[in-house]
């Protein structure tokens, strides 16, 4: 009798622990649902048009995919060395595909990667427009964009990049770039690029030597 009671108790504890683990594992999904409820109430309060509310909700679904994580908080929790390793795994391959970065020192690449910002665009979104200020370049983690100029049209997808001339020459955008699908991108601002570059004078010298376009390093 005692063994039966003991076995039943162990089973009950096992089930309870399993349920607790499953509940804990679903915390990001529950937080996401709560955030979306708050967002919906706020959009209704603002009396936003239904079409705009749908686009905003779709953006959050594309951005977080049903689970709420604050990437910056997560990166702040870990040590600087782990944070650097995480970012290098996520982004160094994208950065290395750009010719001007291919032969750069790994420490310089790490510094560049740490400056990248994650951005999500929905299908049809204009990412940048022709003649816009040269504020940043983009690396495509996943998705497809179309680059449209007066003389040609080009499609770019996973692993592609655009806007590198904004970094090198600081001239305005020469193309309008539009998302053809949901796009997950990383961006590097001009200010961040030059801040890192001035900390690596040897890289600056190499870029000045190898880049055909004139670079103004201010």
Main features:
218 residues; alpha+beta; Jelly Rolls; 8 strands; globular; disordered C terminus
What would you say this structure looks like, in words?
- Helix content is 52%, strand content 17%.
- The longest helix has 24 residues.
- The chain has two domains: 63 residues; 132 residues, Jelly Rolls, CATH 2.60.120.
- The protein is α+β, with helices and mostly antiparallel strands.
- The C terminus is likely disordered.
- The strands form two sheets. The protein has a four-stranded antiparallel β-sheet with strand order 1-8-3-6. Strands 2-7-4-5 form a four-stranded antiparallel β-sheet, with no helix packed on it.
**Uncertain parts:** 4-8, 213-218
Stated plainly, the CATH topology of the largest domain is called Jelly Rolls
**Residue share in helix:** 40-55%
Cα end-to-end separation: 84 Å
Coarse morphology:
globular
Number of helices: 9
Q: Major sheet: size, sense and barrel closure?
A: 4 strands, antiparallel
Mean pLDDT: 81
CATH class of the largest domain: Mainly Beta
Specify the oligomeric state.
single chain
Secondary-structure element order, N to C: HHHHHHEEEEEEHEEHH
**If classified by CATH, what would the architecture of the largest domain be?**
Sandwich
Secondary structural class: alpha+beta
**Quantity of strands, as a count:** 8
User: Strand-residue fraction?
Assistant: 15-25%
Number of domains: 2
